[in-house]
Every structure is written in structure tokens, then in C-alpha cells.
Amino acid sequence: MNIEEKYPLLIGHSDQGSQELRSIQEVADFICSQGLESDLLITQEDGSYFLNTFGIYIDRIADMEYREALLKVLIPMQMELDGTMEVDEEPSPEDERLKEVNKRLEPFELYQCGNGKYGLSLPFSFLQEPYEDYGQAAFNRFAEEHGEEAKNSFGLYTHGNGYEWEKVFQTAFQDDAGLGRISFDSEAGGFYCYCPDAALLERMGMEFKAICDNPDQLQDMVNRALSDRQDETPGMQL
Fold this sequence. Notes:
This protein has helices spanning about 5, 25-35, 65-80, 95-105, 135-145, 160-170, 200-210, 215-225, and strands spanning about 10-15, 15-20, 40-45, 50-55, 55-60, 110, 120-125, 185, 190-195. The model is unreliable at about 230-238 (pLDDT under 50). The longest helix is centred in the first third of the chain and has 19 residues, at about 65-80. The protein has 8 helices and 9 strands. It has 2 domains: about 5-90, no CATH class; about 125-230, no CATH class. Strand 1 (about 10-15) and strand 2 form a beta hairpin. The two termini are about 25 Å apart. The strands form 2 sheets. Strands 2-1-3-4-5 form a 5-stranded antiparallel β-sheet, covered by helices on one side. By secondary structure, it is α+β, with helices and mostly antiparallel strands. It comes from Massilicoli timonensis. Pfam families: Imm51. InterPro entries: Imm51. This is Immunity 51 family protein.
């Protein structure tokens, strides 16, 4: 199955309404036509997040393999719209560098957003073995130690959503001056942060992954990050 067959139907949302998108070309056409008027959201058929844009430029996306295929179609269309010079279709040195970085960052993804920023993400819905439920054991243990069930009656985790991962990240770097340069836009289904400095985001991403890969360190960070939220209703991971 190629990447296009993986998503036979996506739904584009704009100020003009919703539109069914059944191919990468249709997604690119939608972005370049509707993105001239407003920022866009594209979801999967079940309504779950897939990508969003700043105008005609991708802001963040849940599947990096799809992003690579989409950009091959989208970039020439963007260039025609913004009048920039044509560039080689070969991957740029930056693309190649990020590919190598992501081999070490997995399951986190570091990527260019197309708006002068870089993103670091952990989209739960797209994690596959051996990273399915990555880090979830620490959140489950936190719940159990505080007299809560790890899952609710719907079978959803009571802790470990994107907002809580964001809190853990902020706790891990609370004494790091670089934290003030990062913006966050997490959601229930994933952790997302952004920065114009790729080197900073790469460095913090590597350090955070090292924490997450150490069960004792991650548990300590989860406990510290969430201990002040016990008066709040726990969020559910989608």
C-alpha cells in the first residue's frame, strides 16, 4: 500500500465549508485554492486531526511520509502562487539532515513547518510498534498511585494526553533558558511544540527522548509535572 492509498478520504475544512479530498493532488489543490483566503484544517474521515496550514503552507502534519509525498506536488504550486524560483526536486541538505536526526529521535519527529519554524511532535495515533503506547506506563502508574484507574469506562487512558506530555516537557526543561523560545500547541491526541531554531529544538528533543527512554527518569518527571494537577479533572487520551 502506498502512502496515498493509506488515506483514501480526507476532509478539508475552510471558511467556505468542508470538502472531500480523495488524492494527494486534491489535497494540494484544496490548500492552494482555499489557503489563499484562510488557514485550513484537514482531518481524517473519522474527524481526527491530520494537518493544518498557515495559508497555503503546511504548519504541522501527523504523518511525515505523507508530508514528503504531498510536498512534491504542493511546492511547485506554491512557487507558482508566490512567484519564487523553481528549486531542484532532489532533497535539500536540510531535508537529508532532518531525516538522519529523526532516526535518532524516533518516535519524536523534527520537521520544517514551512513558515520559518520547526516543529517537534509526538502524535499518538500514528505511533507503531515498538513505540505504540510510548511512555504510557509512567502515566498509568501515576494514576494508580493516586487512586485512579489507568483507563476509564470507555477504555481510554485517564492520563497521558498531549497536554500532560507538554507539562512533562516543560517540567523537564524548567531551568533551561531555551524553554522560553518554544511555543506549544498540543492537543489530546498529540504533543506539539515549535521554535525557529532547529538546533535548539533538536537538542531539547534528544534530551527529552533520553528522559523518556529511561523509565525511572520519566516516572519522576511525570510525577513532578502532574502532582499539582490533582484538583483538576484528568484528561483522556484519544
